[in-house]
């Protein structure tokens, strides 16, 4: 562990991209990449906890990823399913609040979806009092999140809203916006991730495919983050 985290870096988010290409490069089916991606996800989360990051968010499955072949979606859901079981086993010895951010209703109608929703909600409430947080974005879409926030505000009787009202109705509330967003896989885009929250985030893009990401490269991204001057529109 070489980097030191301070109050400037409370929240790191990851767009975990490149699993499919990683597998294809090896002549393997895409789900093989998701399997290795899931291993990497555990390693990187563990590392973020070790170095003292307060909030870590990972983009695991987007609202648009349902358009993928059923076989691939099923493989990802299977990985999520076994990860949930693992979280249950680990939760007591672990200072982590598990949160699942996204439109959970999208699991309705998916075989086994009900059990996934139930366990995600249970894990969230059972780990609520821990000091570190992991937001796992599943069935997540940034535009969907903003629309959901507006609809909740309407149902609460609001006819006019402020930025604070909207912010407090985002899936990620009450946590601070991501300071640093790391995207693997080589593409220079946000792909509908944390659209509201990324207004002043620092981005680190790397062509490294997610299963190949190393903790050394996370250190490099963090060092680069600390070398930047965040101006927030000022001077
Ligand atoms: C990211 O890897 C994981 C998910 C979107 C679920 P991809 O599956 O998008 O991998 P590439 O980008 O096709 O290589
Ligand atoms: C973003 O990756 C979503 C996740 C990492 C879960 P995608 O592979 O879905 O993004 P695009 O399609 O390249 O924009
Ligand atoms: Mg991709």
What report would you give on this structure?
The protein is of the alpha/beta class. The chain has seven helices and six strands, in the order E-H-H-E-H-E-H-E-H-H-E-E-H. The protein has a six-stranded parallel β-sheet with strand order 3-4-2-1-5-6, with helices on both faces. The model has no long low-confidence stretch (mean pLDDT 96). The protein binds 3-methylbut-3-enyl trihydrogen diphosphate (IPE) (2 copies) and magnesium ion (MG).
Oligomer: single chain
Strand order of the largest sheet: 3-4-2-1-5-6
- Mean pLDDT over the residues: 96
Low-confidence stretches: none
Biggest beta sheet summary: 6 strands, parallel
Query: How are helices and strands ordered from N to C?
Result: EHHEHEHEHHEEH
End-to-end C-alpha gap: 33 Å
Classify the beta-strand content into a percent band: 15-25%
Helix content: 40-55%
**Total E-strand runs:** 6
What is the number of helices? Answer: 7
Tell me the structural class: alpha/beta
Based on CA inertia axes, which overall geometry fits?
A: globular
Bound molecules: 3-methylbut-3-enyl trihydrogen diphosphate, magnesium ion
